[in-house]
Design a protein that fits this description.
By secondary structure, this protein is of the alpha+beta class. It is built from 15 helices and 21 strands. Helix 6 packs across helix 9.
Length: 499
């Protein structure tokens, strides 16, 4: 399949317009708030019309000047209204190709195609905003697959359920019951509440004075019970909005394991199809926040070199939104057999870690207590409250932390912001392994392990403290391939008496 330079579907003008408008809207409202408070709606109308006309012209020129072509081994893209940029992407450098459809795409039978290579740019290497679904699949097959593999058999180029059933390809689907539980326990509604509170605080600038004052007066005349009931109703609505947002984002979630990649489809409003090459996976992680811990629920994610672009999950790729802890081993065995499920075998860290962190907390609060007694004596009790909360936090940190070592895998578990994270790290994926000790840690015979991997061009670091110093040489030799250390050898040191 080859073709001469062609333009995107004309509907791309719509997507460019909305994207540019979205990037401009914050600046628009900022200028209106600063300069146009007295005649807000007049300034809003004038600025909106002027900016919209400018963006329409810009979107049309952007579409007109964007072309792409394909030959046997590479995709060529030319773009730029005034300054022309030409980019050539070799099919041998392509790491992953993603398809994405929002509502407009689906209504028009179009899709967006994103290409990522092994380059060092955090941006997408190529994005075709609006092309037909048939052309997108043809491009994907041409760029991603060879016509024949080494064995001479034709490589599959379709991702449909008939093929999955016929070949018995491993597949997991997230039910809507699970997605409802995922949204209910994700804490996403907290973000919505924060946005709502910010909007309420700024409402005085936009709401007419008579309406704002009458509403405020009515609220002040209500009984305490009525205000509590209204607050509860508002909280429930925000919680439902957070749950609905999670269901819309991860609806119809399916992950399929092929020979060389994972294939994920998700989304109701914006349908995404993500292909994740197995050779780009740097680590597998399991995350349980404080709400999910009592229910033994977790989210399974991947650290991918490159990964999904513009994702909000802290630049991680979720491969299953919510799963029971008892199901994780079967899930990894089916979808990622390269990684061993070693959570039950984790060795706890030394109890001295809790004493070390508690003493640091005590020293810090002693200073603040002295300052409080000098300048704000009535508030001395705040230091006691901080001591109690800090003690609980450091105790949980000690109880949740652990490590495990096998011939090819290091497992690290620690607590971060009231969430327990367990990460499985392959030896050949760890970019750097650092063991740190302060003078006091050295006296206590404990150390801190820090493992670094690639992730979206910025790196990711995993740390666990409280590991006994005696395994320093074992881990160093394991990482440097000088030794063959297994669970039993390292486990003896990790499981020694904690004093």
């Amino acid at each position: 399949m080859t073709f001469e330079p062609r333009r995107l579907h004309i509907a791309a003008i719509i997507f460019i317009f909305f994207k540019t408008m979205k990037e401009t809207i914050l600046l628009l409202f900022s200028l209106i708030i600063i300069f146009g408070r007295e005649q807000f709606f007049t300034y809003l109308l004038i600025a909106t019309i002027a900016i919209a006309c400018s963006i329409i012209i810009y979107s049309w020129l952007n579409w007109l000047r964007f072309t792409y072509s394909l030959n046997q081994n590479e995709l060529k893209i030319e773009r730029g209204i005034i300054i022309r940029k030409k980019r050539t992407i070799s099919k041998h450098r392509i790491q992953s190709i993603h398809l994405s459809q929002n509502i407009i795409h689906r209504l028009l039978g179009l899709t967006e195609l994103q290409i990522e290579t092994a380059g060092s740019d955090i941006n997408v290497d190529a994005k075709l905003t609006a092309i037909s679904i048939e052309e997108a699949h043809a491009l994907r097959n041409q760029l991603k697959f060879d016509q024949q593999d080494q064995s001479g058999t034709e490589t599959t180029n379709t991702y449909d359920y008939d093929y999955i059933l016929e070949q018995q390809v491993p597949k997991y689907e997230a039910s809507y019951k699970r997605l409802f539980a995922f949204g209910s326990t994700s804490g996403g509604f907290g973000v919505i509440i924060s946005i709502l509170l910010f909007g309420i605080s700024e409402a005085e600038l936009f709401i007419p004075d008579d309406i704002y004052q009458s509403t405020t007066a009515w609220l002040l005349t209500q009984a305490l019970g009525t205000l509590i009931a209204l607050s509860m109703i508002l909280f429930i609505l925000m919680w439902l909005l957070g749950v609905l947002g999670s269901i819309i984002k991860y609806g119809d979630f399916t992950v399929v394991r092929y020979e060389k990649e994972l294939y994920i489809t998700r989304g109701l409003w914006e349908k995404k199809q993500l292909s994740i090459p197995l050779n780009r996976i740097q680590a597998v992680g399991i995350k349980q926040n404080i709400i999910r811990l009592p229910f033994q629920l977790a989210t399974v994610y991947l650290e991918v070199a490159g990964g999904e672009v513009d994702q909000s999950e802290n630049m991680r790729t979720i491969i299953f939104p919510l799963i029971k802890k008892s199901e994780i081993q079967a899930f990894l065995t089916t979808m990622l057999p390269e990684y061993q499920y070693t959570m039950p075998d984790l060795h706890p860290v030394s109890r001295r870690l809790f004493y070390y962190q508690w003493c640091q907390l005590l020293v810090g609060l002693s200073v603040t207590l002295a300052v409080t007694l000098l300048f704000a004596r009535p508030f001395w009790w705040i230091n006691g409250l901080l001591l109690l909360m800090g003690s609980i936090y450091f105790y949980l940190n000690y109880r949740m932390a652990g490590a495990h070592l096998t011939k090819q895998q290091l497992t690290i578990q620690s607590m971060l912001l009231l969430s327990r994270e367990t990460v499985f790290l392959k030896r050949d994926r760890i970019q750097a392994l650092e063991l740190k000790q302060s003078l006091l840690q050295k006296r206590l015979d404990i150390a801190t392990i820090r493992a670094s991997i690639l992730n979206n061009f910025i790196g990711r670091h995993y740390t666990v403290s409280g590991i006994k110093q005696s395994i320093h040489s074992d881990i160093t030799e394991w990482y440097s391939y000088r030794g063959d250390y297994s669970l039993n050898q390292v486990g003896i040191d990790l499981n020694t008496e904690k004093k």
